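In this section we walk through a basic example: taking a raw amino acid sequence and producing a predicted 3D structure, encoded as discrete structure tokens. The instruction is simple. Fold the sequence below.
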Amino acid sequence: MNDTTSPSDPALLQVDAPHRELLDQVLDKWSLQVLDTLCGRPLRFNELRREIPAVGQKSLTATLRRLERNGMVERVVIATRPVAVEYRITPTGDTLNELVDALLRWTTVNLPDVERARARFDDDERR
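The resulting token sequence is shown next.
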């Protein structure tokens, strides 16, 4: 690896408009759950909805389309009668697997501290 691509290179840590847009689309409300679920195995739309019961049909459709557009998920038409559609994680999407797991672990470990901080803040705001 040359000096221009070393992990400490500031160019790799940019937070300009294209980076923010991609992060917004990958880290939005439903994308993390969809990516985490599809890392387990390919699923059809209704199977995915059952795995994430809180997501509505419209939100899941929009999330899958956004993830497909960004190359994280692929939509595969299966030639059966009737025709079936399956969603699969792509190699690019799979590179997020460890990161998504790390974020989910982080939220589990740190949520109690965050909830205490929120309660302190809210108490201070009421005074």
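Looking at the output, two observations stand out. The CA atoms of residues 32 and 103 lie 9 Å apart. The longest helix spans residues 97-126. In the next section we compare this with other chains.
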